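Figure-free illustration: sequence to structure, shown twice.
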Amino acid sequence: MTPRDRPPQPPPSPPPPQSHPTIEVMVVDDSAVMRQRLKAIIESDPTFRVVLASDPYEAVAILSKSVPGVIVLDVEMPRMDGLTFLRKLMRQHPMPVVLCTTQAERAVTALEMGAVEVIAKPDWTNASRLNEWSASFVETIRNAARAGRLPVRDDRAASPGGEARHSADVILPRVPFRPSPSITDRVIAVGVSTGGVQAIQQLLTGFPPGCPGIVIVQHMPPDFTQAFATRLNNDPKIQVEVAEARHHEPIVVGRALVIPGSAHGLIRRAGTGYRVELADGPPVCRHRPSVDVLFRSAAQAAGPLAAGVIMTGMGDDGAGGLLEMREAGSLTIAQNEATSVVFGMPREAIRRGAAKYVVPLDAIASTVMSWHANPDAGTWF
């Protein structure tokens, strides 16, 4: 048979799609109903496979045989509470832990102990919000897995009820900075996410009582930011006053304001200085409050009189806003990789050319204070 007589050959088969490694997630909760609900939500993303434990003792038995990539942990459980288990776990076998609770004080304690994320338990009776919560929860698991340096597919479509991704435009239109001779105060805007509780604690210890006013966006559920601010304010190593921000609250020297977890935070001009404005609206870069919104408002309100600091966290929230700050003449700083729990947010800011300086965590405050001591803000452009 000649080649011409041979029947046509079928085209070669396409290569099989690249497979993604399955990551094991352990859910530790004494409620069987809660365990099954969380399992169904997590496994809606095929990246994850869930194992269940009814209490910390069962979790320890599972850990003796295999080590999961992420642990989802409840607080109130029989025989051993979640915080006791977390403390022992972080001493013996540190790993990414997500706390799922409604108890704000204990959530902040868990983050101080080393939990990488905290998410409030949902209202299971509110079906209209459950899809949004489920998508946020799966994203939280992804962030925790990445914090453990595990490969995770970044497939947003895999999230149940995947929401549209909004930019800062939905909250604050982009306009250029316009200087005002009446504005003389300086202001510091800080954005942080995964690993941020300990990072913010260390950052604030470096500021003296006479530092410019500080506004902080820490990605955290509603009702938890008040407990976080109170904890910071009671820290004897921190010399500045810390409080959860209120609508139209003045930004003053020696005071740090934490934006509530239920609203976007903006810096607005007020007399010779600034005040905080809290705004409702959809999540921006999948977060409310959003670092992008805060940084854009700082660029517009203060320009070269503002300093922007982006720190440890997953994703890209804040990268675009920090670039706008730099273009407006602000001092812009990104935390370096070696001191970040997750380098996602700082890395993206650096990639876009938004960060004037990349420094370790313990050098950020001194860098800002050197800028504050320099009367010629324009040299930082």
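We now fold a second protein in the same way, so the two outputs can be compared directly.
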Amino acid sequence: MSDSLVIIPTYNEKENIEKIIRKVFNLNFTFEILIIDDGSPDGTADIVRKLQLEYSGLHLEERTGKLGLGTAYIHGFKWALKNAYQYIFEMDADFSHNPEDLYKLYQACVNGADVAIGSRYVKGVNVVNWPMSRVLMSYFASMYVRVITRINIQDATAGFKCYRRIVLETIPMDKIRFVGYAFQIEMKFTAIQYGFRVVEVPIIFTDRTEGTSKMSTKIFREAFLGVIQMKITSWFRKYER
């Protein structure tokens, strides 16, 4: 059994899911995978079940209905802690996160980081195939987060991460409020508030070529307003470990 678990939430990812699973299992380092599928009507979970016959380190948790990115990851975090993994990763199914970079995040945590972020902006702007409007929205969203929260993270909305187990044991999951991309901001902010060391590892982010993006105006609005709410709430919370 590996000590490292890659959590991949899915909703209608039949075009990508087999390829991403095979890519991770063909890496030179051994990772296990947990797919959290939110009742994909396109049969994503069926593909995963077939691959489980081939890969003993492939796990599947199915949920009823589209319940949101944040709740999917929290479900996965709890599963990972219950099953004694030491390094827990977040990764998208659509190859926007290069599986080859998993080992770089792992090494960052082995070498002293508590949370390692695959960062698009720590060394310039490393994004491929996004329209300029989306690049600017993402870049300035991270700048906005830094101004409001005072955390020194260049890629605050990044969703490619590795956590050491102690971080997820410490953060009270029932107090994580957000379910969309604001979830990614909240987890980084909360980890820093608890005194954990968060480092950014440069990656190249490549937009999906197959399947459909899950970004929406509602998700963006939650992130924009949620940052202010999160900062105000933090004034009345104690972060002790």
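Summary for the second example: The two ends are 29 Å apart (CA to CA).
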